[in-house]
Structures are given as C-alpha cells and as structure tokens.
C-alpha cells in the first residue's frame, strides 16, 4: 500500500539525541547519525520494513537479480514520484546518485596520492564509497536502472535499501562536490524545514510523499546535544533536558547512572528496551609510521588486557553487554573469538615476556583518541588504567570534538581510538565487509587476503543463514590480528512521555530512524 499527501498544523514532537549528523548529503556521510536523519528525508529504491528480513520496494516497483551469478541487479522505478521541489524523479537521477558517490570517492583517492596538492586543499571525503565496492557500473534502460557488479554480491540489495542508495536531484547536487548549504531535495516522508549542525533539525510531513509508510501527521523537531564548553557531557545535557520536560522523546545516550535508575513500570513515562545492534570498539591502526601498533604482538597484548566486564560494570553500570566478537548478539555469525583467544584474565608475566621477547622496553607509549559516547571520559580513563596496569603500556588519552574526530579518523591520523559502530543494514556483513574488507572504513591499514576471500564467499551466498561458518572464520582471523577490538554491545533504551506512541518501531538494526512512527495521543 502506498501512502500520499498529509498536512499538519500540530505542535512538533521533540526528540532528543546525543548523535548530531555530520551532513545531510547522502553522498557525503557514513556516520550513523547522518543516516538516521536522512532516512526520513530521502527515498531509496528499496527500504527496510519492520518485521521483514529482506528489503522491500520503496521508490522501485520491483528489484531483483537477473542472473544466477548475482552480478546484475535490475530495478524498475515507480512513475509519478517527485522531489520536494516538485521535479519528477527519473532513472537518470537514480544513476546520478550512485555515480556521484563513486566519482567523489575516486576524486578523494586521486587527490590523496597527488603530492602537488597541499594537504589542506585535498578533497576531504567521508562518504559511503566502501559500501559500493562491488559496484562496477550503473546504466539506465527505459524506466529500469541496471547495476553491474564486479563480483557476486548477495548483500547488494541491502546496500540499495540503505542511505547509500538515497536518490538525490541531479539538478541540485554536484557530482564532485559535497552539498554544504544544509538543505535537502529528497522525496522521503519528511521535508527538512531547517537544519543547524549540532543544534537541531526541524522536519515537517512531506505532503507529496508517495511510499510504503503511513506517516504520522506530527512535525518532528530533533534537538542535538553535544558536550558543552564547560565539559558537561552530551549525555548529561540530554538527561537534564528530559528532567525539565523540554523533550518528548529521549532517543540518545543517557548517563549510565540515570539508565540504571529508570523504572520501566513508571506511569510517568514510556520505556522501550531492546538489545541494540550498536557496538563499541577499540581500533588499532597498522600503518601509522613509527607507531607500535603496526606490530601484531603489541596489538594482541593490548587486546588481551582489555577487561570488558569491568567496563560494563564500573563505567556503563551494566547498561551494556560485554562483547567478544565484532558481530553482536542477534546476528548470524556471532561468537566469542576474542574470549576464546585471549580469555578474561591473562597472566601479566606472560604478557610482559611476550613484549620483551619482541624487543620492547616497557612501558610502551602510545596515544588513544576518543570522542562522543556514554560515559566517554570515564570509559577512556578506565581503559587507560587497564592498559597501563602491570607496566605494559604508557597511554596518553586525547578527547576530540566529533566534527574534528571524524575527518582525522578518515585521514588515518590516529594510531588507536575508541568509536561506536552501528549496523548499516540487518546482515552480519555490515560488521565485516566495511570494517575488515578492502574498503577499510576504520582506516586501520590492515590487509588480509584470506579475510577478503572469505568475505567474497559470504557475498556469493544468497541464503544468508548459510554464511554462519564463514563469518565465524573471518572473525577468528580478525581476533588474531587484533586491529579492531570489540568492547561492548549496547542495550537500547528509549524514553518518551506517556502520550507518545510508536517507540517500538523507531529504530532497529537497519540504520533507519522511523520518526514517522511517532505520534501523540
């Protein structure tokens, strides 16, 4: 069923978030916050419908592979769809949307290798190019869009359904430049009335929306909370705003001590709890010149001394679950390779001998960077203490504002850092292909042809339930390399006023933030 025009003169539902997006241009961002917001503003050919394991048609009438090798994917665009500016969406717009990402990625790669371009003038690109690693070409055939893949890739429909596949107006977006005016020309359930980075986004129902969702007729105002100049965390600011009754929905990280005291039976507010797909990791780069993290032995010792139970208990107040695999609970391929390899209580004497036998003088110095996250400062300090215990490491921790952190991460400037990762789509490949594959979204510099081969094996399997063994093998190899070390998996919690409905569908493991599900009684 397709739903059409709806207007609204109602007061907006105010949603609080601790994750401000870096951009509202789908070709320019891969951070989860940007994807969440943009999933309300743009349409893709496919979408993720709650309760369905496979993507469903959105802007497309139909999509499917046309060959048994899963290398040609054809979609038929529905007719009559329009952008928010009134222009009709054409197959050429769809082609442009994908070609643009590839073109910007190629430009960034080309300029990065050009010594004649000053570093501060090179194209700083953070778009989803790694998710299109299998896409070789896009062509238009009448009302159809044909995607030609370089190799078998059963996960491609999931990429199409995400924000990577968001359709933009080719007359409003430049092929080789990021749109920076904070405006949107899309065709999603909402229009972007205004967007102020790190402050707020005002959304109103799109009267010309034509898609699979029935959209609430309430406008939405998203308030973004970031660390204050006085050091007050975004999480504390969100909690204070909730206590003052300034927001209707708290859908951001709250301080662990606040979460621990929430009473799910209280009549004063609604609570929705679930096992989230987001994970927290420590990333150790292998290609920073002069960094000790280029040595696998050093990375393995750092991974071994990490006490996840203590982090979950002491810092996060049991609001998260210790994680021993990059694939979290709830996804095919989940296991405990880090626990199997390193255990919970390594012998300090053995670790000392391992490092000294490798020729190191202890303690080994390195810098650990971090940015936003629940109890982020306390977490970084505890991890520092764990690494420095028994005289193995001498760790300097450095905090960065998110808007500074992401470009530095993407430029490969950190030898070690803490970061969260949220699934782009509901398949274990989202914790594998981008993190451990050639795209190297974490910029670790790690290369492993055996892992790459196993990734291609999983991409070739159309029955996703049969990929379990391959994913487990991939993550056993990843645990041995210790370039991306899992720490914990979130327990997702959303608070809302007693008159707010729709929380159960607001977010899942698909990278979609269904603000259109929210309504007020």
From TrEMBL:
<protein>
    <submittedName>
        <fullName>Oligopeptide binding protein</fullName>
    </submittedName>
</protein>
<dbReference type="GO" id="GO:1904680">
    <property type="term" value="F:peptide transmembrane transporter activity"/>
</dbReference>
<dbReference type="InterPro" id="IPR039424">
    <property type="entry name" value="SBP_5"/>
</dbReference>
<feature type="domain" description="Solute-binding protein family 5">
    <location>
        <begin position="54"/>
        <end position="441"/>
    </location>
</feature>
<keyword id="KW-0732">Signal</keyword>
<dbReference type="Pfam" id="PF00496">
    <property type="entry name" value="SBP_bac_5"/>
</dbReference>
<dbReference type="GO" id="GO:0042597">
    <property type="term" value="C:periplasmic space"/>
</dbReference>
<dbReference type="InterPro" id="IPR030678">
    <property type="entry name" value="Peptide/Ni-bd"/>
</dbReference>
<dbReference type="GO" id="GO:0043190">
    <property type="term" value="C:ATP-binding cassette (ABC) transporter complex"/>
</dbReference>
<dbReference type="InterPro" id="IPR000914">
    <property type="entry name" value="SBP_5_dom"/>
</dbReference>
<keyword id="KW-0813">Transport</keyword>
<dbReference type="GO" id="GO:0015833">
    <property type="term" value="P:peptide transport"/>
</dbReference>
<feature type="region of interest" description="Disordered">
    <location>
        <begin position="1"/>
        <end position="25"/>
    </location>
</feature>
<dbReference type="GO" id="GO:0030313">
    <property type="term" value="C:cell envelope"/>
</dbReference>
<comment type="similarity">
    <text>Belongs to the bacterial solute-binding protein 5 family.</text>
</comment>
């Amino acid at each position: 069923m397709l739903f059409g025009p709806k207007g609204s003169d109602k007061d907006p539902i105010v949603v609080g978030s601790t994750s401000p997006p870096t951009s509202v241009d789908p070709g320019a961002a891969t951070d989860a916050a940007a994807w969440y917001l943009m999933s309300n503003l743009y349409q893709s050919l496919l979408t993720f419908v709650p309760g369905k394991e496979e993507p469903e048609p959105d802007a497309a009438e139909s999509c499917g592979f046309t060959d048994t090798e899963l290398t040609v994917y054809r979609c038929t665009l529905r007719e009559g769809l329009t952008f928010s500016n009134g222009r009709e969406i054409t197959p050429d717009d769809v082609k442009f949307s994908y070609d643009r990402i590839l073109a910007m990625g190629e430009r960034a790669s080309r300029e990065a290798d050009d010594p004649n371009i000053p570093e501060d003038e090179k194209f700083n690109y953070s778009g989803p190019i790694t998710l299109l690693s299998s896409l070789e070409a896009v062509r238009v055939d009448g009302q159809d869009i044909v995607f030609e893949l370089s190799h078998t890739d059963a996960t491609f429909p999931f990429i199409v359904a995400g924000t990577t596949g968001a359709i933009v107006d080719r007359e409003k977006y430049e092929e080789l430049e990021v749109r920076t005016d904070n405006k949107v020309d899309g065709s999603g359930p909402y229009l972007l009335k205004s967007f102020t980075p790190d402050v707020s986004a005002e959304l109103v129902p799109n009267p010309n929306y034509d898609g699979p969702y029935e959209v609430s007729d309430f406008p939405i105002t998203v308030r973004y909370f970031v660390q204050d100049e006085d050091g007050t965390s975004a999480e504390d600011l969100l909690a204070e705003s909730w206590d003052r009754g300034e927001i209707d929905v708290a859908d951001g990280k709250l301080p662990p001590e606040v979460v621990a005291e929430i009473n799910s039976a209280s009549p004063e507010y609604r609570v929705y709890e679930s096992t989230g797909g987001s994970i927290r990791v420590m990333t150790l780069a292998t290609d920073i010149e002069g960094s000790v993290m280029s040595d696998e032995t050093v990375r393995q010792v750092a991974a071994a001394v990490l006490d996840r139970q203590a982090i979950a208990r002491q810092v996060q107040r049991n609001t998260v679950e210790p994680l021993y695999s990059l694939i979290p609970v709830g996804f095919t391929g989940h296991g405990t390779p880090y626990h199997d390899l390193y255990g919970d209580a390594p012998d300090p004497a053995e670790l000392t001998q391992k490092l000294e036998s490798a020729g190191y003088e202890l303690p080994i110095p390195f810098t650990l960077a971090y940015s936003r996250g629940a109890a982020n400062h306390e977490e970084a300090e505890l991890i520092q203490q764990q690494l420095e215990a028994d005289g193995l490491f001498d760790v300097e921790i450095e905090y960065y504002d998110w808007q500074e952190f992401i470009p530095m991460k993407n430029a490969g400037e950190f030898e070690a850092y803490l970061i969260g990762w949220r699934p782009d789509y509901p398949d274990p490949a989202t914790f594998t292909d981008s993190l451990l594959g050639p795209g190297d979204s974490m910029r670790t510099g790690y290369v492993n042809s055996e892992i790459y081969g196993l990734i291609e094996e999983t991409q070739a399997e159309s029955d996703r339930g049969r990929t379990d063994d391959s994913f487990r093998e991939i993550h056993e190899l990843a645990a041995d390399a210790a370039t991306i070390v899992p720490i914990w998996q979130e327990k997702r919690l959303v608070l809302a006023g007693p008159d707010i409905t729709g929380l159960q569908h607001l977010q899942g493991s698909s990278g979609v933030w269904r603000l259109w599900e929210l309504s007020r009684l």
